[in-house]
Specification:
The complex is a heterodimer of chains A (420) and B (368). In chain A, 71% of the residues lie in helices and 1% in strands. By secondary structure, chain A is mainly α. Chain A folds into three domains: 4-59, no CATH class; 65-193, no CATH class; 196-416, MetI-like fold (Orthogonal Bundle). In chain A, a hairpin with a 5-residue loop joins strand 1 and strand 2. In chain A, helix 11 packs antiparallel against helix 12. Helix content of chain B is 24%, strand content 35%. By secondary structure, chain B is α+β, with helices and mostly antiparallel strands. Chain B folds into two domains: 2-240, Rossmann fold (3-Layer(aba) Sandwich), CATH 3.40.50; 248-366, OB fold (Dihydrolipoamide Acetyltransferase, E2P), CATH 2.40.50.100. The two termini of chain B are 34 Å apart. In chain B, strand 4 (69-74) and strand 5 (77-78) form a beta hairpin. The chains are: A mainly alpha (420), B alpha+beta (368). Bound molecules: adenosine-5'-diphosphate and magnesium ion. The site of magnesium ion has 2 residues of chain B, from helix 2.
């Protein structure tokens, strides 16, 4: 032992293994154990969270149909510099591939994609493919223009060229109410198709309003929770948490019972002759319904972080402020309130992020005017099956949330945030 | 300062607790019939064990608690209904209560701001107050960036910066280590002398109270047990609680057998101890005798003391400047003697049989 401790080649444990080596071995063992402990969660998050997000981001730019169905054509179209009509060689490649695609019935997959761009494309493609079957040799350019003179239109070819690459930005353009004109320029959608700008804007302002309402309602409750004696505050805490323990659906339907035109509140107002029977207020299946129900549902996410911050504010701060000459109001405004900001920030960002991605409540009580962006994402995923657009909307939402987080970090600092 | 305090007794009291009672739960009185007059410029300490009602008294003075009965007066004004922010009382809290989101300078400027002092004036006052507590140059730090002692200084400066006439401190040094605590005791004392403010100070540390105060009110069980200057409190405790709480104390419990004008005889374990009657019930009553360790002599000359008894040395502890001897006298083996480590001092050995003696005036017969 004494030899080992002075040995110039390094320290040894008593069984002669270098100290460094046995330390590394011991550490490796505990590292592996730690990794095995987190592995299930890590895998779970990878599979259920990271992978879907990556998949969604890819889908928003993915454009595989053209390449699958007419791979050669896509290739030559991408090589073609565009403008005017393509050369005979491209007509030839395309004609050959269209015949093949017609035969193995894969053409339909491409035409539905092309139809997103221009509703006439499906008919054109099928008609051309069918007739080409009877043509055996070129020149193909003439043959195709003869079948339909659309093939002599440079705009159709511009569309084909645009749709050929494996990746596209069209979904993002659409998500911002933009589209590509037949001339290939980025232009605004026609008035009647401009819905997403409005939707994003509505989602943002309604989420902000809901966050504000939650803060307004949650602040006094959190204050009471933090200052009342434990016995009373525990009871109040149960009331705050109660919504957590009831089904979301039950809570939302309760609001329907309360707010609908034949509902409890309207009945009471009519009974109290404040309203006439034909003046019942529309409080649900519109924005009001969404705002009321979501404020209620998201309130605990504001109260809990606020409460946990307020709990740590020493009551002697207020006393000190009072003894230094501040009125109750000044002491609150200058001393108490600034110390609650980390909680307000945490609660605010939590509620806002939850609100802009909320789906079920607006779907149930939002009617037509109370729908949020997530309802349209669901629509594109489940009904219109335009997954690309749904994914683009989702990606924009995700970017918005990250931007919020970044902004919050700049202004308040994430380290200052207290979630409880 | 003791003289000044005595001289000022002729004046009206500056702070007066007049028959104050306080209960929180309606069942037990936390403060019982408190009478306390504090004069301008005095340093008065409320000293007592934890839970004796000191903080409650301070809070009633500061306005954070209302007396259940009785009045608190500041000057001639009845304070009961005056809200805290109108009392103009500076206060230092045990945990300092510095506002964490403000810098040191902002903390100090706060009381000036709410009083509408102009920015330039406030800045000058803040600088002066920081200078007073030797915290120049810390203006822009946050409280979290200061050590405990520095926070303490800032808290004191903040309580003084708006020039209150009365400053309250509730165990302000409790969280500091011993050296820092002693240093701060002197500094607070010096600030008090320099500014001439009236200070009411709360502590449970008797040596702190003795060091700093003009007068000390010893609290126990919601009552003031004795209110006196430090020397009187130490040398002439009026009851057994004060004798035991302040300084070290040897005690015997016995029965009064004879009572005279300035002397009484108390029977302890079959022997008579002659003592000064202070708080006894008369012949046949139980009493606690109190005797300071430094007033006990070892092997005194014959006839020099009325009380001389046999003792057996149980334990010796060497403490540098003196030696503590624990001896057994009259079956009390907790009896302590302090032997000064002076030139040619007596040397004791464990197991020695010695004689101990003390004067009649040093042995006070108090309540049982
Ligand atoms: N806010 C309060 N509510 C109820 N009881 C209290 C409150 N503050 C103090 N007490 C009780 O009053 C008694 C005296 O407390 P306190 O004045 O803090 O004593 P000290 O400061 O001398 O330790 C204690 O028994 C304490 O439990
Ligand atoms: Mg206390």
């Amino acid at each position: 032992m004494t030899d080992a401790t002075v040995s110039p080649v390094g320290l040894m444990t008593s069984d002669g293994v270098p100290l460094k080596q046995s330390l590394a071995r011991a550490e490796r063992r505990s590292r592996i154990r730690a990794m095995m402990l987190v592995a299930p969660l890590f895998l779970f998050i990878m599979i259920t969270f990271i992978v879907p997000i990556i998949d969604m981001l890819l889908r928003s730019v993915d454009n595989p149909r053209f390449q699958e169905v007419l791979p050669e054509t896509a290739q030559v179209l991408m090589e073609w510099e565009g403008g005017g009509l393509p050369p005979e060689s491209i007509y030839a490649v395309m004609a050959a591939e269209m015949k093949a695609a017609m035969k193995d019935r894969s053409l339909g997959r491409l035409t539905s994609r092309l139809n997103f761009e221009d509703p006439g494309m499906r008919t054109l493609m099928f008609k051309t493919a069918r007739r080409l079957n009877r043509v055996d040799e070129g020149p193909w350019k003439e043959a195709m223009i003869k079948i339909d003179d659309e093939w002599g239109d440079p705009q159709v070819w511009a569309l084909m060229k645009r749709t050929a690459p494996a990746y596209t930005t069209i979904h993002y353009l659409n998500a911002f109410d933009l589209t590509v004109s037949p001339e290939g320029e980025i232009v605004a959608q026609p008035e009647e198709l401009q819905i997403y700008g409005l939707l994003f804007w509505r989602t943002i302002w309604m989420s902000l309003l809901i966050t504000g309402l939650c803060a307004l309602l949650g602040f006094p409750i959190a204050y009471l929770l933090a200052t009342l004696p434990t016995k009373t505050s525990n009871l109040l805490m149960i009331l705050v948490l109660l919504p957590f323990w009831t089904s979301l659906l039950v809570r939302t339907t309760t609001w329907i019972v309360l707010l609908q035109t034949e509902g409890v509140i309207n009945d009471i107002l009519v009974w109290a002759t404040i309203l006439n029977d034909d003046e019942r207020i529309q409080m649900i299946y519109n924005q009001t319904g969404t705002i009321v129900a979501m404020t209620h549902i998201l309130l605990p996410f504001m109260v809990l972080p606020l409460y946990s911050v307020m709990k740590t504010i020493d009551p002697s701060y207020m006393r000190a402020a009072r003894s230094l000459g501040a009125t109750q109001v000044t002491a609150f405004r200058r001393i108490y309130f600034p110390n609650t900001i980390p909680g307000l920030g945490a609660g605010g960002i939590l509620v806002f992020i939850l609100a802009i991605g909320y789906y079920i409540t607006p779907a149930l009580v939002g009617g037509r005017t109370g729908q949020l962006i997530s309802n349209f994402i669901a629509f594109h995923m489940q009904e219109s099956l335009n997954w690309g657009l749904g994914a683009a909307l989702g990606a924009i939402l995700l970017a918005g949330v990250l931007a919020m987080y970044w902004l919050y970090n700049k202004l308040i600092g994430v380290d200052n945030m207290k979630f409880g | 300062m003791a003289d000044a305090a005595l001289a000022s007794k002729n004046e009206e009291p500056f702070v007066r607790f007049n028959g104050v009672q306080k209960t929180y739960d309606g069942e037990t009185l936390v403060v019982k019939d408190l009478h306390l007059d504090i004069y301008k410029g005095e340093f008065v300490t409320m000293l007592g064990p934890s839970g004796s009602g000191k903080t409650t008294c301070l809070m009633m003075l500061a306005g954070f608690e209302t007396p259940t009965f009785g009045d608190v007066l500041l000057g001639t004004e009845r304070l009961n209904m005056v809200p805290p922010h109108k009392r103009g009382i500076g206060m230092v809290f045990q945990n300092y209560a510095l506002f964490p989101h403000m810098t040191v300078a902002e903390n100090l400027a706060f009381p000036l701001e709410v009083r509408g002092v102009s920015k330039a004036d406030a800045e000058a006052k803040v600088a002066r107050a920081l200078q007073m507590v030797q915290m120049d140059g810390f203006q822009n730090r946050r409280p979290a960036q200061l050590s405990g002692g520095q926070q303490q200084r800032v808290a004191v400066a903040r309580a003084l910066v708006f020039e209150p006439e009365l400053v309250l401190m509730d165990e302000p040094l409790g969280a500091l280590d011993k050296n820092l605590r002693e240093q701060m005791q002197y500094e607070i004392k010096h600030i008090h002398e320099e500014l001439g403010v009236t200070m009411v100070y709360v502590t449970h540390d008797q040596s702190e109270a003795l060091t700093m105060s003009d007068r000390i009110a010893v609290f126990n069980d919601g009552k003031i047990q004795q209110l006196a200057t430090p020397d009187v409190l130490y040398e002439q405790p009026e009851n057994a609680f004060v004798a035991a709480f302040i300084g070290e104390n040897n005690k015997f419990v016995g029965t009064v057998r004879e009572v005279g004008e300035d002397a009484c005889a108390v029977e302890v374990k079959g022997k008579m101890i002659r003592a000064l009657p202070v708080l006894i019930e008369g012949k046949g009553g139980k009493t606690t005798l109190s005797l300071r360790p430094e007033r006990v002599f070892i092997d005194p000359e014959e006839g020099s003391f009325p009380n001389v008894f046999d003792a057996h040395v149980e334990e010796l502890i060497y403490l540098g400047d003196h030696i503590r001897a624990r001896v057994n006298v009259l079956e009390n083996n907790e009896f302590i003697i302090k032997v000064p480590n002076s030139y040619k001092h007596q040397t004791l050995h464990k197991g020695d049989n010695i004689k101990v003696g003390w004067a009649l005036e040093d042995c006070r017969a108090l309540d049982a």
